[in-house]
Amino acid sequence: MNSTLEFEKPVIELEEKISELESFAESNNVDLSDEIDILKKKLDKIKSEIYMSLTPWQIVKISRLQERPTTLEYINLIIPDFIELHGDRFYGDDSAIVGGIGTLEGIPVTVIGHQKGKNTKENIQRNFGMPHPEGYRKALRLMKQAEKFKRPVIMFIDTPGAYCGLGAEERGQGEAIAVNLLEMSRLKTPIIIVVIGEGGSGGALALGIGDRVYMLQNSIYSVISPEGLSSILWKDVSLAEKAADIMKLTAKDLLKLDVIDKIIEEPLGGAHKDIDFISKNIKEYLLAEIPSLIELDRDELLNSRYKKIRDIGLWE
């Protein structure tokens, strides 16, 4: 069952009305095409008004939708011969992070990403996309393998944050994240990052160091959730919407701050409205960048990545 956001209700109601009229016209052999066309034009106008002027909090809501496409859904469409690999070779396998190998239009690649579930059962299995240390160590193992075999790395980011449970802390959550940051900054193979939903805190950043960083139009990327910020600043989690407005967590904000390189357009209403459209857009961006990054020698690649990291942000 699809989630309905409060600001989307006028769209949903009009879509249902159009569907009812179409069903009535078909079942009763009545020509209502003029009335339906008028409603469809009105629907397009309402959609444009709502989705072209979303507030940061509304974008947060869209980025968290359960029906939003996951890493594995994108992988299956973009890299159909993907083979998933498991385990960190230290402790175990973390299903909140998936990774493996495949080919992108003939280019061998390693693909890694956070994985959420599409329902409650899957979310429990995937720990709601919140990785344990073994997840980050699995990702690092696959990145080092990619470096060895000169495969570009594609990263999909979608997590509320790293899991902060007792077991995760005992197994070295902070150390696992820190090591990933260090190793990704000097990995001798191209890395392309795509934020597809939530980019939450160090849990996202642990897979977020790369040569190119893209965000889907309705995704977010921040050091903390709006709820977390409002509870710290104002001791009131209900002020999350106010926090979102000042956090600069949307793709437009982060593009202005040089945190990301490009925004990948989504269909009106979000990526879940047309996964084929957004997958095609992601694939085009990947194919536009990977060949040129592969051609760079290792020193040039690492120097460019270092400069990119140092240039993040605007200073006044």
UniProtKB/TrEMBL annotation:
<dbReference type="GO" id="GO:2001295">
    <property type="term" value="P:malonyl-CoA biosynthetic process"/>
</dbReference>
<dbReference type="InterPro" id="IPR029045">
    <property type="entry name" value="ClpP/crotonase-like_dom_sf"/>
</dbReference>
<keyword id="KW-0276">Fatty acid metabolism</keyword>
<dbReference type="InterPro" id="IPR011763">
    <property type="entry name" value="COA_CT_C"/>
</dbReference>
<keyword id="KW-0067">ATP-binding</keyword>
<keyword id="KW-0547">Nucleotide-binding</keyword>
<keyword id="KW-0808">Transferase</keyword>
<comment type="subunit">
    <text>Acetyl-CoA carboxylase is a heterohexamer composed of biotin carboxyl carrier protein (AccB), biotin carboxylase (AccC) and two subunits each of ACCase subunit alpha (AccA) and ACCase subunit beta (AccD).</text>
</comment>
<keyword id="KW-0275">Fatty acid biosynthesis</keyword>
<keyword id="KW-0443">Lipid metabolism</keyword>
<dbReference type="GO" id="GO:0016743">
    <property type="term" value="F:carboxyl- or carbamoyltransferase activity"/>
</dbReference>
<comment type="function">
    <text>Component of the acetyl coenzyme A carboxylase (ACC) complex. First, biotin carboxylase catalyzes the carboxylation of biotin on its carrier protein (BCCP) and then the CO(2) group is transferred by the carboxyltransferase to acetyl-CoA to form malonyl-CoA.</text>
</comment>
<feature type="domain" description="CoA carboxyltransferase C-terminal">
    <location>
        <begin position="31"/>
        <end position="292"/>
    </location>
</feature>
<dbReference type="GO" id="GO:0003989">
    <property type="term" value="F:acetyl-CoA carboxylase activity"/>
</dbReference>
<dbReference type="GO" id="GO:0006633">
    <property type="term" value="P:fatty acid biosynthetic process"/>
</dbReference>
<comment type="similarity">
    <text>Belongs to the AccA family.</text>
</comment>
<dbReference type="GO" id="GO:0009317">
    <property type="term" value="C:acetyl-CoA carboxylase complex"/>
</dbReference>
<dbReference type="GO" id="GO:0005524">
    <property type="term" value="F:ATP binding"/>
</dbReference>
<protein>
    <recommendedName>
        <fullName>Acetyl-coenzyme A carboxylase carboxyl transferase subunit alpha</fullName>
        <ecNumber>2.1.3.15</ecNumber>
    </recommendedName>
</protein>
<keyword id="KW-0963">Cytoplasm</keyword>
<comment type="pathway">
    <text>Lipid metabolism; malonyl-CoA biosynthesis; malonyl-CoA from acetyl-CoA: step 1/1.</text>
</comment>
<keyword id="KW-0444">Lipid biosynthesis</keyword>
<dbReference type="InterPro" id="IPR001095">
    <property type="entry name" value="Acetyl_CoA_COase_a_su"/>
</dbReference>
<dbReference type="Pfam" id="PF03255">
    <property type="entry name" value="ACCA"/>
</dbReference>
